[in-house]
Write a structure and sequence with these properties.
Layout (H helix, E strand, L loop, with lengths): L1 E9 L8 E8 L7 E6 H10 L5 H11 L12 E3 L3 H10 L7 H26 L1
Antiparallel strand pairs: 1-2, 1-4, 2-3
Helix pairs in contact: 1-2
Length: about 130
């Protein structure tokens, strides 16, 4: 996912917490981006309860950590998920039956051990 700040507005004097930031979210699919907005107050609540990682939380954290004099400079900044590359690597390594190479290796080792135990067990019965 990619989040981009495309606007900032401030309400009249005395409403410091009600800065509004317009942003766009794009998930990389063929679907059009989603446009939304968030107030500084809401961004603070979200950041206080969620960890970093995805683009939206990174963007909210940047908004919250910025000084009010810098809010207009946030317009145009984009944020991308930290774990996108890890997900792509895992997906590309997943087989059609849903097994990853490491899961397949565990299955083969386990069946090999089972075969060894069966051979040992069969041998002890024959004696």
């Amino acid at each position: 996912m990619k989040a981009t700040i495309w606007g900032h507005t401030q309400l009249p004097e005395g409403h410091e917490e009600v800065h509004r930031f317009a942003f766009e979210l794009h998930d990389g699919s063929e679907a059009p981006p989603v446009r939304e907005s968030v107030s500084l107050r809401t961004a603070r609540v979200v950041v206080a309860h969620l960890q970093d990682g995805n683009a939206l939380i990174q963007m909210f954290r940047t908004i919250v950590n910025s000084k009010p004099t810098d809010y207009d400079h946030l317009v145009g900044q984009s944020f991308e998920d930290d774990f996108i590359e890890k997900v792509r690597a895992t997906v590309s390594m997943t087989r059609r039956d849903g097994r990853t190479p490491s899961a397949e290796g565990r299955r083969i080792r386990q069946s090999h051990r089972m075969g060894q135990h069966a051979a040992t067990f069969g041998h002890s019965l024959a004696v």
